[in-house]
Protein 1
Amino acid sequence: MRIAFHSPLKTPDSPVPSGDRRVARLLMHALARAGHEVDLATRLRSRDGNGDVTRQARLAELGTRLAARYLRLVSQGKRPRPDLWFTYHLYYKAPDLIGPLVAEALGIPYVVAEASVAHKRAGGPWDQGHRATLAALARADLVIGLNPHDRPLVQPCLSQGAAYLHLPPFLEIDGPPPPERPDRPAELLAVGMMRAGDKLASYRVLGAALQNVPGDWRLTVVGDGPARPEVEAALAAISGRVTWRSTLDSIELGAAYAGADLLVWPAVNEAYGMALLEAQAAGLPVVAGDTGGVSAIVRHDVTGLLVPVSEAVPFADAVAALVQDPTRRRALGAKAAAITRAEHGLPAAAERLDAALRPLVEARR
């Protein structure tokens, strides 16, 4: 099948690294692994972070023009005619302004992966984006949810006959299973971009918690961003135990996971957290806040420990328990690696996607 792919929040070829870019690329790789031809149909970023109604109106107009241009190129044979349109990640700040128009005009299935609905935005500064998201969901033949937390609000917005599929977050996992960690003082690892909002809030919870964790341990922090000074201030009380690594490429990050014993991340308002999945694939147990879809990735007392989100004292207690018990750390890490490789690998995701998409196209044909 030919699949037209669109990511309105951030394009897969964006030069700026992020979890959103990573997941978009992974979805494209999974679709290609399933034997499909994936075409990046448009690079329009429809994100409006400020609630600017004028900007939203201009984006909607641009989306209509780009959809017409795409259809014209298809009719002229200058772009391949897709069998299906696939949009990743839409919500009120970044609606899909092209896909529903193209799918309707061509009579092809329209599929959405990772959508969220916030009805409180109706009538407010993001009303246009909210209504566009509802319209896209009403047009969708299938919605694929990576975060189970979104399903209760998204599924009622679908038209009769549309389907909803839960797809566990996944990774490209290469190489043999990780070796068992040696006995040593605990090496803690935190991975997260440094920006205002939820990421900074997570670092502040982390700093408040770790200053109350006894024992012999050190922390490596991987990440960077405009809130770096605030993050350093949040960890100032434990600065003598912290190693700062800035942003790492995939090989360097893999080495950081391999050199650690425990991933610690409060995950304030985290959708699910790709770093949590990467760490477990590398054999690291995780201590994280129980929020969003985190519990769909981290199994409490099986692959790590989940604690009430934004609460420093339970977080400190969970970290201390694993710092003081290397045998338990290793057992949780071994389970984490085995489960992640079995249930969250690229082959399993490709099979699930293929099984869901092929019937949609065959029914239209």
Protein 2
Amino acid sequence: MNRIGEIFAKRFEHWNLRIPEEDLAERRSGFIQDKGWLIQYCFGDDEAGEYMDYYAAHRMTDDEHIRIRADGSVESLPAFSSMRLCSKDPEEDRRLEEDYYRYNREVARMLVEKGFDKFTINMMLSAGLIE
């Protein structure tokens, strides 16, 4: 688990954000809300070994959803899309809007299944959960 903590700390080095040592040792889910970031994390394992997933949201950048494996490998996972394609054709534009919200709602469902239950206003707007 040390490798996971190191990789996370390097990613957020500029903000001096780290997963608490006790959470790493006990593989305990949690969140960090500091310096403009909302970062939720959880631990798991699968056929490839142990990992930590995190979802990071900041109003000044796109969200990221990342899996860091105990072996040090890093995988990108689905995150909210902040950009919606548009069309001058009303029917095409309606379809593009439906696709945008469908994708983001699926991401929201995936996050809730992981136990990530904290959402920023931007996340909720992207999923069409508030207007």
Protein 3
Amino acid sequence: MTFSLGVIGLGRMAQALLLPLLEQGQPSVEEVIAVVGQAATVTRLASELPAELTLLPASDPQALSAWRAPMQLLAIKPYQLDQVAAAAPPVQEGSSPLLISVLAGITLERLQSCFPGRVCVRAVPNTPSLVRAGLTGLAWGQGVTDAQKLQVQALFSPVSEVLELPEERLDAFLALTSSGPAYVAMIAEAMADGAVAVGLPRDQAQHLAHRTLAGTAALLHEQQLHPGQLKDMVASPGGTTMAAIRRLEAAGLRSALIEAVVAAAEHGRSLR
């Protein structure tokens, strides 16, 4: 059987990308083959995915069909790259399949070395894509056609805003957008802890912290406000917010967040 999309690795991000496409019927579920590492994973995922989806362990000979699809989504762990590349069959004569990698830190140069004959794209989606509120950065490899670019954008646009970037900017993009949800989660946790410390129940404090962050992000985005503008809207002279901001400035919150983004980007570059 010929498949139009081969998915190699089916973790949470790959599922987040695949399921909206299947809901739209582009491609149809019968045109997709997904490959996972272990037979036990097939059993676990079978109840969570459409019954018509061809889902196979890598040990199944038919799994090689995923590598013959004209479009291939590579969503394994980065440490598995060499093992998976060694098992991938050579490209059939006359074909030039499109390989889309979501592996953090794996450059286009390395992808093209591991998978000769394929046209490669590097994608950096972030975890809010799991709730269709993500961001994805795309860097094009050599030979990607305009039609293939549209195919790639169609893969990510149902779950994220898509940005095309030179590859050298992907480390900064990843440091802000892919690592960023961890920074925000830490801020949410700390805000809730502070509210608990002054008397709110834990569940209520967490709910209010999450809603405050979500509402603030929406206000910044929808009204195109500079963060400083919003801060000044909230902080009245001599008020409670200014008392809090003084503590945050004394603790170095802004500097810590700046250095966190820089450190993440530098570490990403060191993985090459």
